[in-house]
Amino acid sequence: MPPRLHADILLIGGGVASARxxxxxxxxxxxxxxxxxxxxxxxxxxxxPLSKELLRGEVDTALIAAEPDGWYGRHxxxxxTDATVxxxxxxxxxxxxxDARAISFDPxxxxxxxxxxxPDVVGAEHAHTLRSVADAVEIRQAAVGDGPGAPTVVLGxxxxxxxxxxxxxxxxxxxxLERSDWLWGRALGETISSWASQHLARLGIEVRFxxxxxRLDVESAWVGDERVPAAGIVAGIGVRPRDxxxxxxGLEVADGILVDQARSAAPGIFAxxxxxxxxxxxxxxxxxxxxxxxxxxxxxEAAALGMLGLDSGPPRAPWVYxxxxxxxxxxVGWAPDFDEERVLGDPASDVFGVAxxxxxxVAQLAxxxxxxxxxxxxxxxxxxxxxxxxxxxxxx
Length: 396
Ligand SMILES: Cc1cc2nc3c(=O)[nH]c(=O)nc-3n(C[C@H](O)[C@H](O)[C@H](O)COP(=O)(O)OP(=O)(O)OC[C@H]3O[C@@H](n4cnc5c(N)ncnc54)[C@H](O)[C@@H]3O)c2cc1C
Known about the structure:
With 396 residues, this protein is of the alpha/beta class.
């Protein structure tokens, strides 16, 4: 039997939530041992470029690392790549790996992230999903492998789908199939959806609203009886949290691990990033799962502070950014069920804002191409502003 090892703090998962937790622990002076276990063969890296610069072949994989070269060694953080935690014994504070190694810890972070969904249609196996560097490389090859004009079909006009559509800029002929009438399923409102659609159209990207793929094969997506040719098909239809480990360990899980300031109900067990569901003031205290880069980093920080017995304070307004067709949109806040959108400035100028109102308050704000600096937008939404406060923001 392999020897039992010990890590003072165990970080399960090799994404930015774990990397940020390790960094925060060291910056706050923690001197005990830290072990990070990562299923992928690479050190933790930032995923946003996978659907942007890396997909288009503009940057090398070395540039997307979460920490600079040599950081883990310099800060005495041990990292095991190509290693998977298969079982967690919460009571005994013991993790077992797939290769039967066992590690005792106190405490640990579960930051196992999320995995993309596949469409529930015949031939779903012909769709690529995009979560890793290898996925991005495969998708790019399919898009440009047969020379200019190779068709890519993107399933879903959400964050990933709209970004992947920018494959058009490297010569692919892109069609986006979006089931609803709006990009981002109306989560960003009608104004930004219409404005973005125009930018995609200028790149020659065809967005077909109200269209759902009903069948896929090796060289096509089918919308009913209509064949849409595809050298590559990319599914961008959402993710599900990788919470099976936590469920099996008996933690409270409901589409994500339930946590408060990154603490689960089980002493010494923390969770952060895409796998965690946190109570949020902007959701009236309900738990939300924010599947975005800033939330993962901030969750990792909150977990580190919690492990050190420090208070990380209430969660800030969620912040997601997206880049497509040369445009940058930052969205702060939480308002999937907004009542009204207010346009601030002129969308035709490509620099504008949209406020999403729920009840009498602005619950979410989009700032397009730096209409207001994002930190300012975030502080604004964090202040739970009422509608008249918008005039203050608009005059900045
Ligand atoms: C293509 C793409 C583009 C994105 N673009 C943006 C963007 O523009 N803006 C934005 O805000 N957000 C974006 N995101 C979202 C953002 O990248 C995620 O929110 C973030 O990566 C979540 O980090 P995480 O550490 O929680 O999980 P992950 O990044 O998913 O990392 C978890 C890691 O843990 C590993 N793992 C899982 N189970 C185990 C186990 N049992 N043992 C060991 N290891 C395990 C996984 O293999 C994975 O490597 C994007 C995501 C993708 C995929």
